[in-house]
Design brief:
TIM Barrel; 15 helices; single chain; 2 domains; 378 residues; 17 strands; alpha/beta
């Protein structure tokens, strides 16, 4: 892996860079569409390629349970299994374990959990998670970590930090001993919840392990936006400058712009695709709910300023009709638009950084985005 910073904005921490991976070059800032189950929902691979997508995210936890690692291994790895020729980052499943708290137990050795599919019992150690992702053939691997919700006690946050660091050490040892000579790369994850001293401690401990890249976990998990911004700024600047920075779980314009301003290179989120399937579309004037009665006779596209295939061919009235009649095409067309919109936003962000006008771009974009529709995203 080769990470090269191309340009730094003169008035913020925003930057552009390139990330050389086995399956092609990733230009940053970069939004990763989420393909949890080896597919980005409602989008074909050729549409993703048409959008310029060079890196998607899949999930180790879900693929481990279904179809099972043995199936993917028999099919030649995840790239072959899903017929995707470009790069894949696989999350460790730590967030899924966090979100399925009634079904899991966390111990020093690893996590013990019951499948949300059939109730079967499983154990995953940090070493197992690295091994699974190596079988998947991921371009970027994430280690097992402990993600925590807001408003837990300091002692609980500290214990999660301790496990995250110890598991990171074991994951790094496993990767170095077995896979370092391969073309897969293991990133470290910084935790610490919403305690500044614990965030600093986690950053110090994780960056001392010598990962080739670093992720910020435990943000955008239900906290207020001001809290998110405060802890993002703190944590991002604790990651050494020459390394790629990945903010986990961010995918709306407000959060993307805040992340870029703090020097984040990579981010992912299910929101653009999930909201697309639920009749909510991004527009330059804010989110739009396509099921609203006001769209019934509206012959305008989702966004007149958008040049995607959906906006070029279909009206709000037609899309509303598709959603009301529960046609699959509704999800396909709106999801494509949402991903196109986010991709165009990222392309504009890169150009603004190169022109040293990122903060101006951010202000102008948000002034318009928050000014009209303001339908809340799901």
């Amino acid at each position: 892996m080769l990470f090269t910073i191309k340009h730094k904005d003169a008035h913020s921490n925003a930057r552009t860079a390139s990330l050389e991976l086995l399956h092609g070059t990733v230009l940053t800032p970069c939004f990763m569409p989420v393909g949890t189950n080896a597919t980005v929902k409602a989008v074909k691979n050729d549409d993703l390629e048409e959008l310029g997508t060079n890196l998607i995210l899949s999930n180790t936890y879900h693929l481990y349970l279904r179809p099972g690692i043995e199936v993917i291994e028999a099919c030649g790895g995840l790239h072959s299994f899903m017929s995707w020729k470009r790069n894949i980052l696989t999350d460790s499943g730590g967030f899924q374990v966090f979100s399925l708290s009634p079904f899991r137990r966390i111990e020093e050795k690893g996590i013990y959990f019951k499948s949300h599919l059939d109730g079967s019992s499983h154990r995953l150690r940090p070493e197992d998670v690295v091994d699974i992702q190596r079988i998947l053939g991921s371009d970027i691997l994430m280690p097992l970590d402990v993600c925590t919700p807001p408003e837990i006690s300091r002692e609980e946050a500290k214990q999660a930090l301790v496990f995250t660091t110890r598991w990171a050490e074991r994951s790094m040892t496993r990767w170095k001993s077995e896979f370092e000579s391969s073309s897969s790369w293991l990133f470290g994850i910084i935790q610490g919840n919403f305690f500044k001293d614990l965030r600093k401690r986690s950053a110090e401990e994780i960056t001392s392990l010598g990962f080739p890249g670093y992720a910020i976990g435990g943000l955008s998990v239900g906290e207020e936006f001001d809290t998110f911004r405060d802890y993002l700024e703190l944590t991002a600047q604790l990651i050494p400058d020459p390394y790629p920075r990945y903010l986990m779980g961010v995918g709306t314009p407000e959060y993307i712009l805040e992340a870029v301003e703090q020097g984040i290179d990579l981010f992912d989120c299910v929101l653009p695709t999930r909201t697309g399937r639920n009749a909510q579309a991004f527009t330059y004037n804010g989110p739009l709910s396509l099921k609203k009665e006001s769209n019934k006779m509206d012959t305008e596209p989702i966004d007149p300023a958008c040049s995607c295939k959906t906006c070029a061919e279909y009206s709000r009235a037609y899309l509303r009709h598709l959603f009301k009649t529960k046609e699959i095409l509704a999800a396909v067309l709106t999801t494509y638009h949402n991903l196109y919109f986010i991709n165009q936003l990222v392309l504009s962000i890169r150009e603004a950084i190169r022109s040293n006008r990122f903060k101006e771009f951010k202000k102008n974009f948000l002034d318009a985005y928050k000014g009209t529709e303001n339908d809340s995203l799901l």
